[in-house]
C-alpha cells in the first residue's frame, strides 16, 4: 500500500513507492579485503561506498540489509527527495569508516525505522569539504531522522560534519536509541572548513554505555590538501537538544569551540545523564547557551535561562 504522506511531504513520484516493499534481500560489500588494504596503507585512492547516488531525486531505499561496506554504506550526494526506511546496516565494530547513512549536500531527506551496527557514525550529515564544498555551495537541509537505533564502539549515533563547508541546516532528529558508542550527538568542524551548522533539533534519545553524551569539536582538522583558506571559520549555532536520558555515561558534554567564533545559542533541556565517574562531567570552551532541567548541571557557559518556546521559535524552522 502506498504511503501518500511521502508524496505530499517530499513530492516523491508515486510510482517509486510501488517498489517500497522489498523481499528483505541482502547486499554484501565484502569489505574485509578493503579494510585490510586500508590498514596496511597500500591504497592510493578512497575505498568505494556500498551504495552511492549522485544528482538524483525521488529516491526510495527500503526493506533491505546492507553488510560489510568497504567505506560509507549509503551515500546520497547532491540528491533531493530521498526516503530511506526499514533498513538494517551491519559491519564489524573494528571496521574502518563504515558509516551507516551519510546524506551529503542533499535536501528533503527522510531516514526512519533503521537499525545500524558498524565501525563508525550511524548517521553523518555532510555538505562538502573545505574550499571545494564552499565553492560548490550545495547545503544539506530539511532532513528528518526518526526511530533510529543501533550501536558503534568508536563513533557517534548522530554526527554533523566534519565535511560541512556547504552548510547544514534544518535537521530534525527524534527517537534515537543508542548503546556502546563513543559519542551520542556529535558536531565536527575545523578552522578552514567555513560553512555553518544551524537550526538543528534533536529530541527523545536514550543512551546506554556512551562515553560522551554530547560532543562538539572545532578541531576535527583533516584537510584534503593545502589549498584551504585558514581564515574560513565554521559558524555553529541554534542547536536545540531536549529529552535525553542516559545511563553509564562517562562525560555529559564536551564543547570545544574556536576563540572568536564560539558555538552560540545552544539550548539544552530536560536531560538526565547517570554518570559512571565522579570526574569532570562537562568541558566547555568558547560556547554560549541556555539550559533547563539538566543533570548533572552543565558548565557556567550553558547556565543562562531563556524561555523554551521563545528560543525554539526563533531558531528552529519547520522542516
Automatic annotation (TrEMBL):
Family: Belongs to the glycosyl hydrolase 28 family.
Protein name as annotated: Polygalacturonase
Any GO BP: carbohydrate metabolic process
Cross-referenced InterPro entries: GH28_Enzymes, Glyco_hydro_28, PbH1, Pectin_lyas_fold, Pectin_lyase_fold/virulence
GO molecular function, one term: polygalacturonase activity
Keyword annotations of the record: Glycosidase, Hydrolase
The keyword Hydrolase appears for this protein: yes
Amino acid at each position: 500500500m502506498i504511503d501518500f504522506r511521502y508524496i505530499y511531504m517530499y513530492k516523491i513520484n508515486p510510482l517509486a513507492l510501488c517498489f517500497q516493499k522489498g523481499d528483505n534481500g541482502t547486499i554484501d560489500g565484502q569489505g574485509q579485503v578493503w579494510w585490510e588494504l586500508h590498514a596496511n596503507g597500500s591504497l592510493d585512492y578512497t575505498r568505494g561506498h556500498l551504495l552511492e547516488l549522485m544528482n538524483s531525486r525521488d529516491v526510495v531505499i527500503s526493506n533491505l540489509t546492507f553488510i560489510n561496506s568497504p567505506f560509507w554504506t549509503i551515500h546520497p550526494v547532491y540528491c533531493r527527495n530521498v526516503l530511506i526506511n526499514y533498513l538494517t546496516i551491519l559491519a564489524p565494530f573494528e571496521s574502518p569508516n563504515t558509516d551507516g547513512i551519510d546524506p551529503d549536500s542533499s535536501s528533503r531527506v527522510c531516514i526512519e525505522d533503521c537499525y545500524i551496527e558498524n565501525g563508525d557514525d550511524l548517521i553523518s550529515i555532510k555538505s562538502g569539504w573545505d574550499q571545494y564544498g564552499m565553492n560548490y555551495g550545495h547545503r544539506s537541509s530539511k532532513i528528518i531522522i526518526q526511530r533510529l537505533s543501533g550501536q558503534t564502539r568508536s563513533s557517534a549515533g548522530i554526527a554533523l560534519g566534519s565535511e560541512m563547508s556547504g552548510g547544514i541546516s534544518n535537521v530534525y532528529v527524534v527517537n534515537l536509541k543508542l548503546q556502546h558508542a563513543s559519542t551520542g550527538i556529535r558536531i565536527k568542524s575545523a578552522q578552514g572548513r567555513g560553512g555553518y551548522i544551524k537550526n538543528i533539533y534533536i529530541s527523545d534519545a536514550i543512551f546506554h554505555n556512551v562515553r560522551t553524551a554530547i560532543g562538539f569539536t572545532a578541531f576535527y582538522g583533516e584537510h584534503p590538501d593545502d589549498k584551504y583558506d585558514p581564515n574560513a571559520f565554521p559558524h555553529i549555532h541554534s542547536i536545540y537538544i531536549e529529552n535525553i536520558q542516559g545511563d553509564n555515561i562517562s562525560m555529559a558534554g564536551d564543547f570545544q569551540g574556536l576563540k572568536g567564533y564560539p558555538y552560540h545559542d545552544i539550548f539544552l533541556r530536560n536531560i538526565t545523564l547517570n554518570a559512571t565517574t565522579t570526574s569532570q562531567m562537562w568541558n566547555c570552551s568558547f560556547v554560549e547557551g541556555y539550559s533547563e532541567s539538566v543533570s548533572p548541571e552543565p558548565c557556567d557557559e550553558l547556565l543562562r535561562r531563556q524561555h523554551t518556546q521563545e528560543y525554539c521559535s526563533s531558531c528552529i524552522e519547520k522542516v
